[in-house]
Every structure is written in C-alpha cells, then in structure tokens.
Request: fold
Amino acid sequence: MPAALPTSRARIVVLLSGTGSLCAALLEATDDPAYPAEVVAVGSDRRAEGLQHATRRGLPTFVCAVGDHPDRAAWDRRLAADIAEYDPDLVVSAGFMKIVGPAVLGAFGGRLINTHPALLPAFPGAHAVRDALAAGVPVTGATVHVVDAGVDTGPVLSQREVAVAPGDDEASLHERIKEVERELLVETVARLVPAVTSRESPR
Ligand code: GRF
Reply:
C-alpha cells in the first residue's frame, strides 16, 4: 500500500544572498509530493542570482535591501513584513548574509533556521571556511541551527562532518561542504515540519 501523502505541506520562505544552490536543493526536494514542505517564496537582501531558482518555477521573490531603508531597524521591520506576507511555517536562511534584528526574530523566532559551513560553535561568522583552513583543522563541516540574536549562536539542530583534504583551498573545501549542507538542510527541514506546523494560530 502506498504511504499516505501529507494533506498540506509546511510553507517555507527561503532567504538567500548568493547563487542559491542550497535553495535549489530544497526546491528539488519539494518536487517529491511526499516531501512535507513547499517553498512559497524566496527573498534576498540584494538582486541575488539565486532568486532565479524561484522565478524559473514561477514562485514569488522579493528583495529587501538594507540600503533602501533609513536604518537597520527599518530594514528589519520591512523584512519581517515581506516574509509575513507569505505566512510561512518555517523561514530558512540559506546563504543569507545578513544578521536579522528583533522584528524578524520576534515574528519568526524558533521558526527561523540557518545553515552554516562549519561545525558550530567552531568558526562562526561570514568566513567560516577560510577560518577553518587557517586554523589547520583536519575536519570541519556543516551545521543547521535555529537563529537567535547572536552571530551563528542559536541551538544546533544537525551537523555533519567534512574532512579537509590536502591541497584544499577555500573554494574547493566550500564546495564539498555545500554538497553536505544541501543534504543536511533538506533532511533537517523535513524533520522539523511536525514541530513548526503544530502552531495554534488559525489560517
Ligand atoms: C553556504 O555555504 C551557506 O552556509 C553560506 O553561504 C553558502 C551559500 O551557498 N552562508 P549557495 O548560495 O546556496 O550556493
């Protein structure tokens, strides 16, 4: 007997700043009707290349740039409002290179997750791969964690190791980490769905 398919899938808004290969992996996962979540919109802080993964599929996108706002707090409030328009169960920061503020955390705290290319708490921040190479560690990896007010400090949801190969440079190591990040993100989102869809607020 075929497994019963979920009647409704969790709604995800993805945030990105770059090429969006992590977002693409999530979108591909959602092609399987048994995957328990769907991407309902993709947002960015810039006109990022990665937004094309959504537009190609006819999904809505939005850009909320810090420079278009009088200050960081106004940007944070606008970003929270932009995300809220899509009524997500889960917000996924997949290569989103901005620290969100109290408005976004207030609206989506606990339901906002981030993927990071290191084994947190080791090597937080924007240069995790470079920092791991500079430290000479034999093993680094990927982490999916809940976003809090700090820089890559929120509770860890899942981690996977990646060995540093002799001769690795930042690009080669980051590419191997991203292969692992894509799988880890797809798996972690699926695992989180029951928790984020049990909210009481009616739609
Ligand atoms: C990932 O390694 C993510 O953790 C980091 O930026 C990269 C994004 O890659 N913050 P892509 O744009 O999804 O290809």
About this structure: The first strand starts at residue 10 and ends at 16. The radius of gyration is 17 Å. The chain has a mean pLDDT of 94. Residues 16, 18-23, 50, 94-95, 115-117, 178, 181 surround 5-O-phosphono-beta-D-ribofuranosylamine (CB under 6 Å).
